[in-house]
Amino acid sequence: MACPIDTTSIRPLIYAAGKCRMLDQRKLPTEEIWLEYDSYQGVAEAIRSMVVRGAPAIGVAAAIGAWFGARDIEAATGTEFMAKFSQICSHLAATRPTAVNLHWALQRMQSFARANVERSVTELKIGLEYEALAIAEEDERLCRKLGKNGAVLIADGARVLTHCNAGALATAGYGTALGVLRAAVAAGKKISVLADETRPFLQGARLTAWELQRDQIPVTLICDNMAGYLMRKGEIDCVIVGADRISANGDVANKIGTYSLAVLAKEHQLPFYVAAPLSTIDLNLANGSLIPIEERSAEELTHLGGIQLAPTGVPVRNPAFDVTPARLVSAIITEAGVVKGDYLKGLAALF
Description:
Layout: E1 13-16, E2 19-23, E3 34-37, H1 40-48, H2 55-71, H3 78-93, H4 100-115, H5 121-151, E4 159-162, H6 177-186, E5 192-196, H7 203-214, E6 219-222, H8 227-232, E7 238-241, E8 245-247, E9 252-255, H9 258-267, E10 272-275, E11 281-282, H10 299-302, E12 303-304, E13 307-308, E14 321-324, E15 331-334, E16 337-339, H11 343-350
Parallel strand pairs: 4-5, 4-7, 5-6, 7-10, 8-11, 10-15
Antiparallel strand pairs: 1-2, 2-3, 8-9, 9-14, 12-13, 15-16
């Protein structure tokens, strides 16, 4: 059984015959290398080391990893199985703290197991495999629906700025922010994209530019600190990004640098759109100040491709994400609809 549904050529991961192959996104765009995993520990390391990245894709990978762990559990009863399965899910949940899709997918897997704890262990394992596959297959369908919902916001001829990578590589396929752009192109609109390089991991330069070139959508790469200049020159019409977690009031955690773009867009009176599935919305957090922000290794800033760029021993700050206040967001695009204005009420209504 393949995972996910085969409707686009760009995939971050493929599950078949009890193994998961992941496109090593650290090697793109110059090399397309696939790594194979068949244990939850291996999947956890792939998430932690960013072989696979992007909030929805991390959720899909975690669900498959949880299934690998479940498959190898030895237990006589459902209760014994559940205790061991919870430990596996906790191990996977600890890999990256900010992306809520990771925790959402693991909670869904655990909820399924709890609801079926009276069944045989064999039945539990079979059911968990199907649940993991369902999470993957649903993701692409939801991204396509999200894309259509958001495409109406993109004008024909628009010059769109995006940050990081919120495309097929960040999901099970198709993408969130790039899914909106793909849907706009499919609707016959002629658009062009400006892709921020997105320091320090360069997801824009390495991944977004690669995806859009593959889809023959016009894309121009710019450095992160160029956006304000181009906005002032009138060369950008709107901004669209993805999200790793959205709080109940509409505050948005996304790749570091997103907040700066939102401030610039506000200054230049440009729409700032966020595209994310419902699984990215965390109604349990009242506002963005409660979103945990991952700090990554200093080496991502001090070195590039193994070459040292900074003095040895210099102190480094490397938060992977920042939080954009809801007041700077023009609209949040989901598979269930587009929300504007009162996000506290509007986001809750989507559920």
